[in-house]
Amino acid sequence: MPIKNGFSLLALVPALSGAILSASAVANNDITWGVNSAPPFHIYDGEYKDAGVCDALVSAFQQELPQHVHNIRKLPSRRITMIMKRNKNLCFPCVIKNSAYNTTFLYSDTTHKYAPHGVITDRDTGQYITAKYGYPIQFEQLAKDTDLRFGQPDERRYGKLQPFIDDYLLNASNFSFISGQQSHVNVLAMILNDRIDYTVDYKMVKTYYQRTHDDGDKLSFIPIAEYADEVIEGAVGCTRNEWGKRTIETLNSAISSVQSNSEFQRALERWLGPNRPR
User: Fold this and answer.
1) DSSP helix/strand/coil, 266
2) Vertex 116: Cα angle to 179 and 93 (nearest 5)
3) Triad 145, 151, 152: Cα angle to 5°
4) What's the pLDDT tens digit per position in 203-221?
5) How far is the C-alpha of 235 from the C-alpha of 218, rounded, in Å?
């Protein structure tokens, strides 16, 4: 091996190799977040820009884990799921912990809790539905009603309610998939414009709509009987690979501090209210 300027190039190889490995280790130590426009989970614009529940959750992890590089990728939810299923390194904040329809994810410990989904409809339809199916609503019976039009935002899933939707509504003439950015908010506008009759979502989605649209007070939220006394646990979902395992361990080490983070607590208070599950 020739010597240039008094140094052997061979002697540089271990150092270069070490630098490459070091850079790789740093890259593998990064935390990559996949976020999508879904108010009030993530809010891209308007009065509440970056003040969603999941915006605050990611921000809290950034504050509590400053030794890690946090990369944030804005992507449609379907794209996020596809990337993770293709074994690419990504974490999705604010997923339902251990949900049956995301079995390919690794899940963190519980980050926060939600009251369960309810039926969202307009006031008049709400009165009709509760007169027929009770309060709380017997959702399985409601799902069988072919006279009422149901809208499900693309990529939205509803835990234990999903089998009723799949069995009685999916592919039926009174079922609509609502696609596009902020589809779970747009579906509420469709209800108020009489294009569909009801959807299922968290009460905080209705809260967001009411705070950002003049006609939001015309919406009703009705609890669902099948969810009686249940609480939904939120978590972070990461790709099921070695990177995901290490990242989940890292996130779990910070969750206690994240849960006490003042910014995160303010976001939970704003959208879930003071009586939210603890």
Assistant:
1) helix
2) 60
3) 115
4) 999 999 999 999 999 999 9
5) 32
Find where tokens 């108010």 sit: 39
Task: Tell me the helices (H) and strands (E) count for the chain, helix number first.
Answer: 10, 13
**Which amino acid would we find at residue 43?**
I
Q: List residues bridging with 200 in a β-sheet.
A: 119
Greater model confidence, 221 or 8: 221
Q: Using the predicted structure, report yes or no on whether residue 2 has a pLDDT greater than 60.
A: no
Distance between CA atoms of residues 61 and 67, nearest Å: 11
Q: What is the mean pLDDT of residues 134-141?
A: 97
Q: Are strands 31-35 and 232-239 parallel, antiparallel or unpaired?
A: unpaired
Distances (CA, A) of 63 to 9, 66, 112, 250: 42, 6, 17, 13
Query: How many other CB atoms are there within 10 angstroms of residue 93's CB atom?
Result: 24
User: Cis bond leading into 66, ω under 30°?
Assistant: no
Distance from the Cα of residue 129 to its chain's centroid: 28
- Of the candidates 246, 253, 237, 277, the one whose C-alpha atom is nearest the C-alpha of residue 98 is 237
Total-model pTM: 0.86
Q: What is the largest CA-CA distance in the chain?
A: 91
Q: What is the mean pLDDT of residues 175-188?
A: 89
Beta bridge mates, 70: 31
Residues 235-270 have pLDDT tens digits of 999 999 999 999 999 999 999 999 999 999 999 999
CB half-sphere exposure, 173, CA atoms < 13 A: 2
Helix, strand or coil, per DSSP, at residue 4: strand
Pick from 186, 204, 203: which is nearest to 195 by CA?
186
